[in-house]
Amino acid sequence: MIWVCRAIAPALLVLALMFSGAPALADFAAGRAAYEQGDFRTAREQWKALAEAGDATSQAALGSLYIHGEGVPADYQKALKWTRLAAEQGDITGQFNMGSIYAGGLGVEPDYAEAAYWFRLAGEQYDSMSRYNLAILYSRGLGVERDDGEAVFLLNTTAIIAGTPEIGLNELAGNAEQLALNLMMTMNQEDIQEAHERSKEFEAEYLKYYMEFYFSRKRASENASEEP
Asked: Pick from 79, 64, 119, 77: which is nearest to 95 by CA?
């Protein structure tokens, strides 16, 4: 299993920044545009100022640059510093990356229990990749007690989140569905039924969240277009 860190979470980025001040949003967006064009040095300059001012999204993005050595020499200690600051503020990307750092042993001793802790926090904020990684840990008993029923539940909910249009991680959704099927081949019917019932309850909960996200973003876009 390869534990990958990321700089930004595109589908959730708008929601995460919606409540930030306009200057911070504009500065982060400038950094993101530079990052997507491969201009990592400019991205670092934009994000570093925001990160030092306490912006969690920028802290997570800056941490990822240090992990991958993009625009800066790779430095796992600086990566851990900025990533932890973001994660402790509740930033989803920061929490996901903390999980990946500890699962992959990036500059630290591998610690699957610590990885599970951070993946769980991000997963509770509907991050599909974190739920998938947590499911892997449960299916293998890494850092947590092995629980195939919990793994199937997490995989089912990964597929629900990843398959929605705003997320669009269809390959991840397909992988989650296939792994869930593989696990169910060795599970009893009662545990399978329980996992499916929990998944249905989650789907209703997530649909409500998803619609709130969609309409909040739509209103924000309309308000922005009305400004002179």
From this structure: 119
What DSSP string describes 180-202? HHHHHTTS-HHHHHHHHHHHHHH
DSSP 112: H
Rounded (10°) angle between helices 40-52 and 22-36: 150
Q: Which of 25, 110, 31 is nearest to 64 (CA)?
A: 31
Q: What's the predicted TM-score (pTM) here?
A: 0.87
Q: Which CATH superfamily is domain 10-110 in?
A: Tetratricopeptide repeat domain (1.25.40.10)
C-alpha closest to that of 150 among 199, 189, 113, 117 = 199
Q: What is the pLDDT of residues 111-143, one digit of tens each?
A: 999 999 999 999 999 999 999 999 999 999 999
* Secondary structure letter of residue 69 according to DSSP: T
